[in-house]
Specification:
Helices cover about 25% and strands about 40% of the residues. The chain is α+β, with helices and mostly antiparallel strands. The protein has a 5-stranded antiparallel beta sheet with strand order 14-13-12-6-15, with no helix packed on it. Strands 8-10-9-7-11 form a 5-stranded antiparallel beta sheet. β1 and β2 form a beta hairpin. It is flat. It starts with a strand and ends with a helix.
């Protein structure tokens, strides 16, 4: 992929990116072209946006209580892709073993899991557990799985795990502050309007009102984030 010194066609250099991981700053749009602002050897450069040839790594933290990360290494000289190694069903006539991928959520009361089968003569498979709050780097999507980078090893987790991007931590903070304010405001409004009944019965309307407010807040924050990124792209 060609590297440019500025977001202009005429600034093309003789340097290329080929399977490298570089620091990404932001996206810019100039003269009808979307550019990705990156840093190569400490210098600010640009490449054209083409997601068929690249993937923006996501630095995120796990929201679920835990999830399984599966790793594999080839025992032969061949390099295997994820779907060359694993199958969701056991195949007859193959020397297969299974490994369980799991996602634990909702205060460890619920879980989702899937068994994957692989040829143990071709690859060596291992796994570890990511805990809630642990940082993960998502490198690409593989259908129902996500490829993640752990140290210098690539692993795989279920694609529907809950996480938030570290760069969007402010959204979580704002959401928590507003949610606490909404809960307090709901109770105050109920009491101010004559709801003097004590006990757990007050929790029901307060929770309903709070849930509606929180959903609205999340929707507004999502729109705000989209607008913010769009404005940032053009400056």
């Amino acid at each position: 992929m060609s590297i440019y010194t500025a977001h202009e066609e005429s600034s093309k250099t003789s340097d290329f990116l080929n399977g490298e991981i570089v620091a990404f700053n932001r996206e810019k749009r100039r003269n009808g072209i979307n550019w990705l602002e990156i840093y190569v050897k400490g210098k600010k450069t640009y490449i054209k946006k083409d997601f068929s040839r690249m993937y923006i790594l996501k630095k995120a933290r796990l929201i679920d209580d835990a999830c399984t990360v599966v790793f594999y290494e080839s025992k032969t000289e061949n390099k295997y892709e994820f779907y060359d190694v694993f199958t969701p069903h056991q195949l007859e006539g193959m020397n297969q073993e299974s490994i369980m991928m799991k996602r634990i959520y909702d205060e460890a009361q619920k879980e989702k899991y899937i068994n994957l089968y692989y040829n143990k003569t071709l690859v060596e498979v291992s796994k570890r557990i990511f805990a809630k709050g642990e940082e993960i780097i998502i490198t690409s999507e593989k259908g129902t799985f996500l490829e993640v980078l752990y140290g210098k090893k690539f692993g795989y987790i279920l694609s529907d795990v809950s996480y938030y991007e570290a760069r969007n931590w402010w959204v979580i903070v704002v959401g928590i502050i507003v949610m606490l304010g909404a809960i307090g405001g709901s109770f105050y409004a109920l009491i101010d309007n004559g709801w003097t009944i004590t006990g757990s019965i007050l929790i029901i309307p307060a929770l309903i009102i709070t849930a509606i407010i929180v959903i609205c807040i999340k929707f507004i924050l999502a729109i705000f984030n989209i607008v913010f990124q769009s404005i940032r792209k053009r400056f």
